[in-house]
Amino acid sequence: MLLSEVGYARPATVEQALELLAEHDGARALAGGQTLINVMKARAASPDVLVDLNDIAELKGIELGSDGTLSIAPMTTYTELIASPEARARPILGEVCAQIADVQVRNRGTIGGNVCSSDPTNHLPPLMVAVGAQLTIAGAEGERTVPADEFFLGVYMTAVGFAELLTRITIPAGRGDGFASVPIGRDGTCIVNAAASANGGLRVALGCVGAVPELVEPSSGDAEAVKEAVRAANIQPPGDVHASSDYRRHLAEVVAVRAAEQASKRARE
Ligand SMILES: Cc1cc2nc3c(=O)[nH]c(=O)nc-3n(C[C@H](O)[C@H](O)[C@H](O)COP(=O)(O)OP(=O)(O)OC[C@H]3O[C@@H](n4cnc5c(N)ncnc54)[C@H](O)[C@@H]3O)c2cc1C
Description:
Layout: E1 7-9, H1 14-23, E2 27-30, H2 36-41, E3 49-52, E4 62-64, E5 70-72, H3 78-83, H4 92-97, H5 103-108, H6 111-117, H7 124-130, E6 134-139, E7 142-147, H8 148-151, E8 152-154, E9 157-158, E10 165-171, E11 177-183, E12 190-197, E13 203-207, E14 214-216, H9 223-232, H10 245-268
Parallel strand pairs: 1-3, 2-3
Antiparallel strand pairs: 4-5, 5-10, 6-7, 6-10, 8-9, 11-12, 12-13, 13-14
Helix pairs in contact: 9-10
The structure holds flavin-adenine dinucleotide.
Flavin-adenine dinucleotide binds near residues 105, 114 and 122.
């Protein structure tokens, strides 16, 4: 279906973008467009104005701090993350981005758009929660930073409010990470996924089992301990044509164990 008519602005700075977003009630930020343009074509969203972030240099790039902290600008595409020497400091980032959809989506889709979509089937929300990412949000009042486990508020809802922008994702140093999923076909949407981080205590974040990632913290990486932690979370996953609620609950244990094993193994290396 063709797009409906929509206003379009292409600011050069974050400040200009924030002003444009504040001026129009129905304005939406446009990143890679891989979700937003599709939902507009399907008439599931009809913004009045698209504020295209693609010319804003300060929203691009990846920096690696001397302590191993990664600072990733939201307009970084999956392809850029996969190729980035800096991002290899936390190898799981590129590895998971390489599993997202196809090359066309990876060339356009951005890390910021992925998390701001807060689509429960996306790959990056559970990963951000597991690795303990901090997300910086800018608005008229200045900047604030929220941890990933407080950023995702519901399906398509995040801590980014009206006339605000996600401007930075900060990821602490660490290499003991894992990710596992059961997708629909090789490059397809996840039926269930799990990201794990064993840099310090073990954190496992489950995706596709609720509106937002479900964080569990098993007492160890032992398979029984991980399964027990998933059971204790009492998740109530949705059922659909791909998997019943019970089957997703079962898969959640399976992928949590796989992700935790990978994270624990890498943490020991
Ligand atoms: C065929 C297909 C298959 C896909 N499969 C997967 C998959 O398996 N796993 C997966 O994770 N994803 C998948 N996706 C989604 C894809 O990863 C999208 O790129 C991503 O969800 C959105 O990123 P984007 O840069 O395209 O954002 P856009 O579509 O431009 O924006 C998405 C939303 O985020 C908001 N937004 C974007 N940037 C900011 C910002 N800096 N501050 C505030 N709000 C912002 C926009 O206003 C919009 O509401 C798929 C997409 C397609 C088309």
